[in-house]
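Supplementary Methods, section 5.1.

A reviewer requested that the exact input to the structure prediction be made available. We therefore reproduce it here, unchanged from the version used in the analyses.
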Amino acid sequence: MIETITVSTDGQGLYEFTAEVARVVAGSSVAEGLCTLFVRHTSASLTIQENADPSARRDLEAWLQRLVPENDPLYTHTSEGPDDMPAHVKAALTATSLGIPIFDAKLALGTWQGVYLWEHRRRPHRRQVVAHVAD
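The structure derived from this sequence is encoded token-by-token as follows.
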């Protein structure tokens, strides 16, 4: 089963969409298998991260901003704005796909784990994440 999930963003940051992925899994007939997620963009990524304390997400976002700053004079891909090339680098350093086991017809996530789209651009976007559920 394949379904596309749309994640709306309002700028850079981590956007949890665990409930939407769980809904896709629940709508499948798979009791034990794998849910593969793939983001169809070059300036956003996916991650599984803590969903209890928002300071963990803020610290991750700040760390990646320090690691890949805007306005690096060595960037040549600059026509779409100062956040575009850093967004591509951030997506290359993180993940564009995830695999999550399915057990008892549910995502086998840990207690504090959530599924996130990591938006690397400053302006709002509607990101497409393809979910493939198979046994």
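The chain has one domain: 2-134. These observations are discussed further in the main text.
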